[in-house]
UniProtKB/TrEMBL annotation:
This is Anaphase-promoting complex subunit 4-like WD40 domain-containing protein. SMART domains: WD40. Residues 369-388 are annotated as: Disordered. Keywords: Repeat, WD repeat. It comes from Galdieria yellowstonensis.
């Protein structure tokens, strides 16, 4: 390789095709590596979470003649739409008690699952003033794993990890002496060096900085920042930095980087494609040097967080790339793709009929045979049309014949170590 040659990452492994691949409503929501990098979670809209082991033999990818297929060793059927998920921060695969993750789902409490066999462990239940069960929109472990942060509409609940049940501390975000934070708390993150300091993103487009050591009624929120037109979907503190904060939003093409020492001014913006209400995730490597994000245009982009410069981008899917996740200890990036996409020849009546016959409690299995056969015919037509569109697309390349590019699946991308050192 020449001194200035930069190789694009290559796909070395991928998940199997889902039986729901051709369903217009099916797509993959999120992929997330465990803190030790030994496994990853894959969430789709069928209300199931698949647990995979990270392949180890792909490190010698030059010797692989074919794309390696990953198979889940366990599946969790949560029964409802998964809103958010998070691994226990001190998880180690060789220490089973620490191998766990939490989920928050519609109409369900926060659930703790075993990361080894997918079994249920316990639940954390939040209730409102009418003593009704409230389901959070976002969840996050604290950096030490002793607390669980849950985001609701205009409030934040904090559970003690060792005390499942209905005991929690509650903070109202639109009252008190600090600045108000309105809307649904859609994402949460914490600083590694100051675990009591957290960032809250809301669907109102505002990011709040808070200190949960104070009591309710005191100045819980320290500052608020707004630079997005759409609702915040991701907020992250940069690893290795005590001042940088990254935020991304739906229906907003900019990823905003803040210096929290000056919340009145945006440090810089990173441009991607996010023109729908779908959550488009982003992630940073463990060193805090690189930021990676998918997009609704099927591209994965990699930036330098030190300069804000776009280092590389590549076509990963003909669908939206909804989520990316770095492996903490290996040069791998995981991505998943898909979007809700009806065939172009369907009218509004056909779309409405299809959606009405899809029962969110039973998933895609509740669709009638007539609807399924009609859907298959329309999907075949759609595939033919899409192949024509890809052939005639001005940016069509040989990559579009790749298995990863064509399908709604998750893929592992290998970064050449020499390439990373050149960036």
């Amino acid at each position: 390789m020449s001194p200035h040659e930069v190789r694009l990452p290559i796909a070395v492994a991928a998940t199997k095709l889902s039986p729901l691949e051709q369903d217009p409503l099916y797509y993959l929501q999120k992929i997330l590596f465990s803190p030790d990098g030994s496994r990853f979670l894959l969430i789709d809209v069928s209300k199931r979470i698949a647990i995979y082991s990270s392949p180890t033999d792909v490190l010698n990818y030059q010797n692989l003649e074919y794309l390696q297929v990953c198979k889940p060793f366990s599946r969790v059927k949560v029964g409802e739409c998964v809103r958010d998920v998070d691994w226990f921060p001190w998880m180690r695969s060789d220490d089973p008690p620490t191998c766990a993750f939490i989920t928050c789902c519609k109409d369900l409490p926060v659930l703790l699952w075993d990361g080894c066999d997918g079994s249920y462990r316990c639940s954390y239940c939040a209730y409102n003033r009418c003593d009704e069960l409230s389901s959070p929109y976002s969840v996050r472990f604290s950096s030490f794993g002793d607390k669980i942060f849950c985001g609701f509409y205009r409030r934040l609940c904090i559970f003690d990890t060792q005390r499942p049940g209905r005991d929690f501390d509650e903070y109202f975000l639109s009252s008190g002496q600090g600045p108000p934070l309105k809307g649904i708390v859609s994402c949460i993150d914490h600083k590694m060096d100051e675990p009591y300091y957290i960032a809250l993103g809301t669907f109102s487009g505002v990011v709040g900085l808070a200190d949960f050591r104070v009591h309710q009624g005191s100045c819980f929120l320290q500052a608020t920042m707004k630079a997005h037109h759409g609702g915040i979907t991701t907020v992250r503190f940069v690893p290795g930095s005590s001042t940088l904060l990254v935020a991304g939003a739906r229906k907003d093409d900019d990823i905003v980087v803040w210096d929290i020492r000056n919340t009145n001014k945006v440090m810089y913006r990173l441009s991607r494609k996010s023109d729908t209400n779908q959550r488009i995730g982003l992630d940073m490597d463990s060193s805090g040097k690189f930021l990676c994000s998918g997009g609704t245009d099927g591209l994965i982009r990699l930036w330098s967080l030190q300069s804000g410069r776009l280092l590389m981008s590549w076509y990963a899917s003909r669908w939206s790339v909804s989520s990316v996740s770095w492996n903490p200890y290996s040069p791998f990036l995981a991505s998943c793709s898909g979007q809700r996409c009806f065939p172009s020849n369907w009218n509004n009546a056909q779309k409405n009929q299809y959606v009405e016959q899809w029962n969110p409690l039973l998933g895609f299995d509740n669709l009638s045979n007539n609807s399924s056969s009609s859907s298959n015919n329309n999907n075949n037509n759609r595939n033919e049309q899409e192949q024509d569109n890809l052939t005639n697309h001005p940016q069509a390349t040989m990559e579009e014949d790749h298995f990863v590019y064509r399908n709604k699946i998750a893929a592992l991308w290998y970064f050449d170590r020499e390439t990373l050192s050149l960036l």
